[in-house]
Specification:
The complex is a heterodimer of chains A (114) and B (113). By secondary structure, chain A is mainly beta. Chain A is built from no helices and eleven strands. In chain A, strands 2, 4, 5, 9, 10 and 11 form a six-stranded mixed β-sheet that branches. In chain A, strands 1-3-8-7-6 form a five-stranded antiparallel β-sheet, with no helix packed on it. In chain A, a hairpin with a 5-residue loop joins strand 6 and strand 7. Chain B starts with a strand and ends with a strand. The chains are: A mainly beta (114), B mainly beta (113). Chains A and B meet through strand 4, strand 5, strand 9 and strand 10 of A and strand 4, strand 5 and strand 9 of B.
């Protein structure tokens, strides 16, 4: 079974600083990887996804993620944090077991300090 | 355009009472449907998913069940709630291919007291 591990349940950065949220995956087949964001008391929305077309994936709100097969990683970055980026971020992998399902990591809550 | 409706938004239920959460999708046909639970500090746990009417896959043994009586309707139920059933429940749908994203409902905050 595939899985994802997010390192750090909480990350705190200053406004304008680099955001780096870590995600490692385990998969026996080429993975389909996703990053989702959840704002308080809301459902999740897709930030970006990797589907093997390009290793560097650009998403919404200035976020991007790089797929590194050798490191089995898919870290999420943003050059300059904004207060509105404060939210919980989930890394996810899609797998097929009789139907496609998405497995999520435990999430990383991002705090942005003024 | 496609929309997903999930209700109620919040629910407070006593231990031992039944549960029924409903989710409906509009604007698409034959979606894959999912129920996730989000507990504090534990991320999203996949509870059930369905690839068609009457087809339910359960991911973890638990006190809950799911049903899909219609193509775009997905129901999460329990006969007797436990304290441990408290959490934030999210319904989601996808088009059914591996690289398609999930579209989430706004969630139900369930408190079992």
């Amino acid at each position: 079974a595939q899985s994802v591990t997010q390192l750090g349940s909480h990350v705190s950065v200053s406004e304008g600083a680099l955001v780096l949220l870590r995600c490692n995956y385990s998969s026996s087949v080429p993975p389909y990887l996703f990053w989702y964001v959840q704002y308080p008391n809301q459902g999740l929305q897709l930030l970006l996804k990797y589907t093997s077309a390009a290793t560097l994936v650009k998403g919404i709100n200035g976020f991007e993620a790089e797929f590194k097969k050798s490191e089995t990683s898919f870290h999420l970055t943003k050059p300059s944090a904004h207060m509105s980026d404060a939210a919980e971020y989930f890394c996810a992998v899609s797998e097929y077991t009789g139907g496609f399902k998405t497995i999520f990591g435990a999430g990383t809550r991002l705090f942005v300090k003024a | 355009s496609q929309t997903i409706h999930q209700w109620p938004a919040t629910l407070v239920q006593p231990v031992g009472s039944p549960l029924s959460l409903e989710c409906t999708v509009e604007g698409t046909s034959n979606p894959n449907l999912y129920w996730y639970r989000q507990a504090a500090g534990r991320g999203l746990q996949l509870l059930f998913y369905s690839v068609g009417i009457g087809q339910i896959s359960s991911e973890v043994p638990q006190n809950l069940s799911a049903s899909r009586p219609q193509d775009r309707q997905f129901i999460l139920s329990s006969k007797k709630l436990l304290l441990s059933d408290s959490g934030f429940y999210l319904c989601a749908w996808s088009g059914g291919t591996q690289d398609e994203k999930l579209f989430f409902g706004s969630g139900t905050q369930l408190s079992v007291l």
